[in-house]
Batch of 2 targets.
Target 1
Amino acid sequence: MRPFEYASPTSRAQAVSLLGTTWGNTEILAGGTDLLALMKDDVVSPKRVINIKEIKDLHGVSSGPRGMRIGALTALGDLADDTNVKKNYPALAEALIEAASPQIRNLATLGGNLCQRPRCWYFRNGLGLLAKNQVGKELVAAGENRYHAILGNEGPAKFVSPSTVVPVLIAYGAVVRLEGPKGKRELPLEKFFVIPKADGEREHDLSSNEVVTEVVLPPAPGLKAAHYEIRQKDAFDWPLAVAAVALQMDGSRIQSARVVLGYVAPVPWPSPEAEQSLRGQAGDEETAQKAADAALQNAKPLSSNGYKVQLARVALKRAILKAAQGGAA
Amino acid sequence: MSDDDPNVKDRDLKPDNSGVSRRDFLRISGISITLPLVANPTVVMAAGQEVAIHGPGKVPMEFSINGKKVKADLEPRVTLLDALRDHFELTGAKRVCDRGECGACTVLLEGKPAYSCSVLAIEAQGKTVTTVESLMQGGKLHPVQQAFVDNDASQCGFCTPGFVVACKALLDRHPHPTSDDIRHGLSGNLCRCGTYDGIRKAVAQVAQKGA
Amino acid sequence: MPDYAWPQAEHRTLIGKRIGRVDSPAKVSGQAKYTYDVHRPGMLYGKVLRSPYAHARIVSVDTSAAEKMSGVKAVQIVQGPGATIHWEGDEIVAVAAVDEPTAEDAVRAIKVEYQQLPHLVSDAEPPSGVGEGQGPLSMDDIDDMLDNQVPSQQMVSQIQQYGITEKPSEETLKGLKSDGATDAVLDAIRAATVHPGAGGQPKSNYQKAAAQTLGDPDKAFAEAEVVSEGVYGIPVITHCCLESHGSISEWTDADHLLTHISTQNVSGIPGQMAEPLKIPASNIRVHQDHIGGGFGSKFSPDRWGIFTAQISKKADGKPVRVMLEREAELKVAGARPSAFARVKVGAKKDGTVVAWQSESWGTGGPGGGGMPPIPYVFNVPNQRKEHTAIRNNIGPARAWRAPNHPQAAVLTMCALDDLAAKLNMDPVEFFGKNLDIAKPRGDVYGEELGIAADLMGWKQKWHPRSQKQHGLVRGVGVSFHTWGGRGHSSDCDLTIHPDGSVELKMGSQDLGTGTRTCILIVAADTLGLPIEAIQLQIGDTMYPPSGGSGGSTTIGGVSSSTRRAAVDARDALFAQVAPALNAQPDQLECVKGRVAVKGDSSRSLSWKEACSKLGAMPLTIRGKNPDKSKPPDLTSSGVGGVQMAEVEVDTETGIVKVRKMVAVQDCGLVIDLKTAESQCLGALIMGISYALFEEKVMDPSTGRMLNADMEFYRLAGLSDIPELVVKMMTGKGYDERGVIGLGEPPVISPGAAISNAVANAIGVRVPFLPLTPDRVLAALGQKAGA
């Protein structure tokens, strides 16, 4: 890693004022499981690292009638163990356990999970989010794109959004809160992710001196939710496709649905097509297959990632059936 | 001091209280900023309060490792793993992938398994760090270690310390782990020689006998 | 003449039993020291500037900023202006500094100008329109072919076909010999036509060898009643040793070097460092306690081992550590060559295989690569084989556990399995029918095949290839393999002290194969002592030289030298003790910690009492292998092996899970049954990894390896591993063959067995490993006509 200054502010305001006003000079250190790797690979080279783990009010999980508030510094492992998460948002608990090894889950935070950078091997090799060589040639389409996007890939961004937990958070209706020099703001979690269109653009709606402070989940009584991921290894491995589904059932019929795909596009991919297809239907195999087909009908695979269309379809079909049949255990 | 002076030594307390100015970043953009001297932290004002800025040169650090208090002067960029191996001669934890993927560097941080390659030494201060070296007591192997020996769960042995610590953590949390507990608990450790069969048997042995 | 022969089963106390690994406690406690763990007083840390380009010429190198940096103690240009780089990651400049962060900063401050050249990093496409003209071979070309384990016969034919660029001196020929060139190759070079001045031409990326024919393949195919054709392949993978390559070198004085190095070849390192460092080999001391994996990649000090020593000299002889980072390790520290082939096989209706035709290709990096030994195990009577080696910029090849055999197994066993499917024959029956062309081990395979089938439950599990298109499907597959494994040259010194303590010294290494334990078992069994009574030292050039751990030659070598030393030491002891027991030396035996008169236990002494008869001086005996003066030969060559795999495939996702694997393996006389079984278990696991997950992914545009990390260079984790069953063949018919190596054979078959199981499960062949979901879905799609 390149040399850097290190500070441990104890308040949000301190952190915000220590952070740079443009990207590239500072980075937030939470769990460190992504940041340290990025720094060792020289993908980011901050001159100052701001450790936010001393900021007490970014920790903690609280539950009440208005839902659950999860501090951004909550470790993934602690969140997975939380009795209220297991009871009220079981698909989230499931996604958290599958998301990473125990060593990662003990360090990695929810805020960091939202902000983690893509796994795209061109990006990790220092070739940028849009994967260009020194003379600006785009590398993914003509290169090794077996793990790249099949949706939302019309522009130069071809990487897939890397969080396995975000799709199920979105399916549960999560809202993310941020704090920066202009104060606090909040937005639906799916809006936190954006597709960069030009060099210098980023994949989050986040300024360099904003801090993710918490994620809020609305109450989900009676919601039948499921998370399904497809990955090659049984041991920890990055997924090839993720599907998260939250169904409001009326007996055996689906009243309404939230469907979000992960690992298929540069952003987590809510699917209004699938949601529409599910409305009013029985929660059976035929319905699930139709919805899955609807979700992927506009997929535009690249030269080597056509199989991801099939995997995403299967992940979604299975997630729908799992949710309809009772949801996560 | 001019903006391109690479020798950042004693910086004055910033008079304004709206945070650190952009100039300060430029000060440390020079090529060589590894200071020969260990410097005390610079203090800056941020949101009306004082915050210590450590580094980029060496920072005096104090750790609690295997129950002992130890000190070292290290740059902020040194990982806990490298501090353990290169400064405290605790070479049980190994550097293999250095990216939080293979588990060979597993230690216990506040009693929980963590990849020491993914933790900066500077932030490991004030937390208990436990390495594989602490498991043997009075020349006697810990039950997890003994079970590894009994079930031939090592070949080259390079992944072994990481696995031993991960197994201990798993069995501390789940003394009678289900196969799912084992799946999840050991999903973060890799072995190239292929000792998984022996490791599974070792975990089963400890689960049966009790740790 | 003392009887060195291995004792009969009824007389063995330790040999052949399940004995725990003696270095396990050190490993589990974190006390075992590997090269990476060594800290020498005043040690400096080395880092390397590596080429970002796969093919480039170095135009200029400016190290001035690095040299001025505080904390930097030495800078060395490894490849300077004018040098040509052949793979991304190749070394340009090395820096030694007071700590790693400083060394990294220094590397970043170095400015290098490159002239990029066109690169080639692909290999899966069959080369088309490749002419046979490839130009005469330079000595560098020959060296590359040796590095890539091109078989001697092929090298000879290429040398004869293309000639050479210059006549080498006898010195050069000696160098080639020590790099592994056979006498046949050396003779071919001596007799070759010299084409001077022809070596400057840019070489083609494709190097086609002359076709090889056996029997009359055209006639045999014409008469064959069934013919099966297919394409098969196995990609470039890496060794991914967990302990990366590297060393710590220091000069104890102006002419003496001490090096700690991660190596499979302790005794062989000084000879490789002497000439480049211009000091006598006798001035170089090598030490290694433990090694974190080698798998064939760590026989040489490598260029980085040499420049580590050189940079240490520049830094006043201070110890300098250079250990490769994971990225560099995966990029430059060795790759297993790929092999692809179009294969056509013909058989009679009853399953007898009569004809083989293959056009194969593959790469081992800049050196090209040889044809794997196909058809493998089964010596099909009529054959035509053509091979094109692809020279490219993927990185240098190195021997990977059982070089060329995993490739040969996939190309052969998969092709034959497809033929069996076409005949609608159970593969066990089909292969069983062809065992007479699996000489010389046809009967061994027969026995092993039967046992494997029982252990797998083959009869219950096999079905004709599945026509089922939906859901989860299961299938089984089989593969056969062979290997040599004769014990290598090994010397050891065994010392018995008058106080009864015993020590053994040998310059060998234990890769995690159980070498230490086996040496102790042999000595202890021979001397009638418990293992704990013997102190063993290995891993230092201060000790008698013992061969490098390659070719599965270690166990045969070290057990033989130890056996001879122990027998001689025992007999020398008997000569001193006999008078005290009123007996002749040849009436004595060592048993249960005592020296006793055979058949009269009342006349015996404890080991300690017996040793006191040695007088004042310890007794030291040298044991050797080979040693024709001390028969019999305690090691031999040639093993078989049969493996079976059961898989489950999710036809909707293409994901393959291995559900069970069975390995039946012979290796002559087993010294430690526990560690032998672990070798097989480990090999099965390594096999699952390369069958399902591993491949070196290269970016065509930048020429870089894209997955030089352990997230996308995937290795199997614990929960990817199913039930594993290992059966070692021991007893009559096996024990009398002496000790034969085991390190490599069991890793040969898993890829082929798993691929065959998948074909059985889904009803169609997935041509290329690794069997990733995209490849499986593509094969299923082809089958459905989608």
Target 2
Amino acid sequence: MARIGVFICHCGENISATVNVTQVAEAASKLPGVTYATDYKYMCSDPGQTMIIEAIKEHKLTGIVVGSCSPRMHEATFRKVAEKAGINSYLCEIANLREQVSWVHPKSDATTQKAIDIVRTLVQKVKQDSPLYPIKVPVTKTALIIGGGIAGIQAALDIANAGHQVIIIEKSPSIGGHMSQLSETFPTLDCSQCILTPRMVEVAQHPNITLHTFAEVESISGFVGNFDVNIKLKARSVDLSKCTGCGTCWQKCPSKKIPDEFNEGLSDRTAIYTPFPQAVPNKPVIDRANCIWFLKGKCGLCKKNCPTGAIDYEMQDEIINIKVGAIVTATGFDIKHTDFFPEYGYGQYRNVIDGLQFERLASASGPTGGEIRRPSDGKIPEKIVFIACAGSRDKAKGIEYCSKICCMYTAKHAMLYKHKKPEGKAYVFYMDIRAAGKNYDEFVRRAIEKDEVLYIRGRVSRIYEKNDKLIVKGIDTLLNAQPIEIEADMVVLATAVVANKDAELLAQKMHISYDKHHFFSEAHPKLRPVETNTAGIMLAGACQTAKDIPDTVSQASAAASKVLGLFSSDEMTREPIVAVVNRMAPPQFTTCTGCLLCMEVCPYNAIEREEIRDRRTGDLIKVAAKVNAGLCQGCGTCVAFCRNKSIDLQGFSNQQMLSEVIALLNQPF
Amino acid sequence: MSEFEPKIVAFVCNWCTYAGADLAGTNRTKYASNVKIIRFPCTGRIDFMLLMKAFENGADGVIVSGCHPNDCHYTSGNFHARRRWIIFRSLLDFIGFDTDRITFSWISAAEGNKWAQIVDEVTEKIKSKGPFTDLKKLNCTLLKQLYDEAITK
Amino acid sequence: MKIGYYPGCSLESSSKEYSKSLLAVAEKCGIIPEEIKGWSCCGASAAHNLNHDLAIVLPARTLAIAEEQGFTEILVPCAACYRRLAAAQYEVTTNEETHKKVESYLELKFSGKIKILSVIEFLQKYISPVADQYIVNNLNQKIACYYGCLLARPKETSTLKRTEDPLEMESVLEKTGAKLINWAFKTECCGASLSVSSTAIVAKLSGKIIENAVASGAESIVVACPMCHMNLDMRRPEIKKQIKKDLDIPVLFITQVLGLSMGIPADKLGLNNHFVSTKKVISSIVKKEA
């Protein structure tokens, strides 16, 4: 006989402000099967939990329903309470009375009635609950880090230093990401490569880290603790075990006119190339799309000249399979380029550049050796205009959010220019100045007060070329909305930070959520910023949203700590919400007819074909389906497909769902 | 005569629409209270006969909602649900059921506003259609009565 | 299928040549738009400066009577009239209260959903597809297409795909053999109705447009708006004084250029009605090889 306890939480005033909680508890007490019902201010607090435990023991309850916030918040909490009180933790259901009732409806009888309906529904469900026991699965203590920028590097070092194996995959030929392209970083004006490259080397040499560059994720399957990942190692055309990084090949390469990605198109590179001098690994790769050998079958100079015979034109892409227990996604960001702005020349004016291009100009290892020069004629500009918020915070351009880093790097760019050319004039057109980090505002003030960068509050409506100059048409809103025209030698656009162009595809491969801008979604915006809704997959860095280096490093370490938590025991318990095919006594054995439709539709290949044989003769009696509880994720697709209802989902069984529907609509059951 | 308040049951998936509805709650977005959610792990789990059971037991409208195609937490559950719906809807049309009373939607965990909007839209639509009375006529009491009459004749 | 024609006041007076050339080109391609009976003023800038309701009701009247007269599409060549009619349509179709208010003012019921065609949309839909059959001349001209503001803003009523750097006029004129140049002032303001109240401002703004067109290599400017035409053409003497340059670059309506390429004689296109001589454009015609 069911003896159900119902506990309605006030949640302070969050629920009780619009729902009459006492009335709900009273209505619950009258339901068949409910032995005890009460309400309390803070059910999840210590005294609240103690109250539930005592009630379970005193009234010998066989199951509980807690009317509270969303099960996504506290289902785990209350299940532990049930466990402590001595009843199976799966005999506890949560009625969502806050996010889906009290917070979204006004105080009224209808709202209280809705709360009563929902509690009644879950009472029916819990009466049909059977005890379930967590499934234990081993944890593979290897982590996969997707992305070799500063976020990936930090997370990898943290996990590797804790003694676990780490595999990093990076799609470009070298790790380092965008941070390796920067000249100096704010607010310290540290040389970016100087602080990054030691870490890159540490990653390459760490005994616990395996680095695969020029590699991409091909497919991911499995679940937390037991991911099965296929990685495509793209053909470098260079045998890394033989190559010494001497550089003879790219010095001899005749294809010299390929736009250099690392220098953001401001200079050219050869077809066989290393992305930058401090690349890790410092070994080249052949860009087959632009190599004469691969296009026409001629040349072959690199191979002929290589002293160690490391060039291999026959090399193919290779797929390797790895088993990992956790994945950290650190795939970083992209920026919009100047061709996004028709009003600023649509990418046609060579002296209108974006932030990353300016970084390359300012960088000592860049195409101009660190001198700020105009891309069109190499002259040093006398006047530079910097435009902040280019594309960001602009609904008309489809990017309503703030890109966070531009106010700071614009100030930095202006300062770097002024340091290199003190008599030059630097103008910054801004909307607001967002400098909220530690020492950030002081940094911007330094640009304005010490380096005499001219800040103009207003936007730029158009840029056009006149003779050799760029005419910048803007407005100074603080000076009585005065239109202002500046004849600049160069314009730098602080363009919007956007998600990586392959982000959507990767998210779909990993089954993680993403928003409309293709930034990956965190599990909870405030309380769980480094996890995703998919257990075992963490987020680090700008792939989640635009952020600067300090925040990226913090988030990477946080993601690493989540992974270390996962790896802290050899076994992991999995939720027993799995499908089961019914079994009964011979001669029936099971109602399953072996049509195996469930096997076809299972996304996890968790269903197998089972042969039921006579124990003595070995004759085949019947073919049936069988669920591998270790693989089943509990989606229930098989259950809906089963033609004669022989397979059911524990925790969401056919009987339970039917009784929920009927109870919700207030029919006696 | 008080205004008709429809009873609408929503069959939603835990990962997307349920989370989206929670988000609407976190944002304190207000919407009509006629829709009550039953949580499923995935829309692929939903046996569509449950929809009929809902109508049979007094529901005036039904919403089925899950993750956007390609975003299913279990990869393909929502594709199966979609195909199921397409066939089921033709069957319902064929037997003369007003398929407008069932709304099939995709709402992600980030779309709290869309949830509220769909709830309000569906509530308005069902309100203007009036109460659903068809399947209620088919109940055991009536059948028993007809049977008894037939027996005694 | 009848297309309603709404000339508006400018096309009946100061920009008569626009109407003349548009109807000539349309007729050449076998299309005779029918003038809407009893059409009235759209309100232009004057109405929306004075009274919000008046600003919607005046153009809405045209939408209502056009619907009543059985038109499914109406051609509105003047950019200002187009903007006002599109604005009225937007208000009436997105706000039921406004719709009812306007219907009560007009004492007419209407849906407001009639399709409003700007001259560019009309040319793209009806003339461009058949242009090859009628174009007999190539124009040896470097042309700068000037869109002005009303066709490009606001976003809700603009039908241009790239509002900061549109290409619709260029695609219509491609078939004339003219070279369409790339320039930066396509949608910059010409000074609009300040032409009358503050001519100096128009001289300055329109002057910049003319300067940039010439600096970008244009030999003529093409427009699709009577206001733009007036400011760039009629106000040339004031412009010349302002910019201190004697620039004589002619300004033509897009329909006039199309007409020339279709072999329609210059006087039938109103090319003698301009303040700045269009002779150079006319003489740039070269008969197409068969």
